[in-house]
Amino acid sequence: LINYNINEIKEIMMDDLQLQQKLSATALNAALEAGKILKQKVNTALKIDYKGRVNLITEADRMSENSIIESIRRQFPEHQILAEESPLIETSSDYKWIIDPLDGTTNFVHGFAFFSVSIGLEYQKELLLGVVHAPLLGETFTAMKNQGAFLNGQPIRVSQVRKLADSLLATGFPYENNATFQRNFEHFRRIYPLTQGVRRVGSAAIDLCYTACGRFDGFWELDLNAWDVAAGALILQEAGGKTVNMDGSAFSIYARQILATNGLIEAELLPIFKE
Ligand code: IPD
Ligand code: CA
Ligand code: CA
After folding, report:
1. Which residues lie with the beta carbon below 6 Å from any ligand 1 atom?
2. How many Cβ atoms from other residues are within 10 Å of residue 148's Cβ?
3. Cα–Cα distances in angstroms (integers) from residue 237 to residues 127, 181, 231, in the given order
4. What is the pLDDT of the chain when averaged over all its residues?
5. Closest listed residue to residue 205, CA positions, set 81, 86, 103, 90
6. Which of 74, 111, 119, 141 lies 20 to 30 Å from 134 when distance is taken between CA atoms?
7. If pLDDT is split at 50, 70 and 90, which confidence band does 56 have?
8. What is the pLDDT of residue 1?
9. Is pLDDT larger for residue 3 or for residue 247?
10. Are 220 and 259 in contact (CB under 8 A)?
11. CA distance readout (Å), 120 to 31, 51, 63, 208
12. In ligand 1, which atom is closest to the CA atom of 55?
């Protein structure tokens, strides 16, 4: 900035602000539109395909995803897009959208309200914004880097619970009954008696947002994809929470696993995963 005069700096800051507003409006509108589609389609007869024996995909996943991608491309045709049900759109842009058009498909298929649309955005490989919208719950979680996290427009914070003994946690299990599945049952078996309970909600994005607003004190899961956690991880961080990989190393949305907490109970959980 040293080479600019004050008016030029003001202009750059205005441009930045306008761009940020356009990015967050695009993300929010895309999530709300997709949520409308899911709300219309839930509890109707849907064509279901199988990615695995219990890994479902419905036409609602595809309709939601197409709607989100169209909304983004209308505003930002040059951005990269990583979305669960489509091939990666790779460009030279520093911006990359990371989309789960329906997180919690199994819940959706059974009319169980815990499903969501999750839209995250990376700028130069760092999370910049996140929106998680749960249409049947009427809850929309949003965050922008360094600007806090919100539920339906109201600021949210993680809980103050300091001990596992006072905590309510969440986890999830992969679709395949594989080694990871078994490993997590072992974690579950060991952690459950140390807490007030461990929930298995069925939408990782909601698990993260529930931790962000203090309903859960922590959440862990193995075998996740970037689109499951991109938006929720930023929302949690911006609500004062902490994310790490389950071995305690620096968190990456591409590490396929997450330990997300209010920051206070992490130390008690980490040794259990390390054993
Ligand atoms: C799933 C949900 C679930 C988690 C699974 C995910 P999907 O996403 O987030 O909570 O346990 O590992 O795959 O398939 O419903 O988008
Ligand atoms: Ca998902
Ligand atoms: Ca999905």
Report:
1. 100, 103-105, 172-174, 202-204, 221, 224, 228
2. 15
3. 10, 27, 10
4. 95
5. 103
6. 74
7. confident
8. 62
9. 247
10. yes
11. 10, 24, 18, 13
12. 14
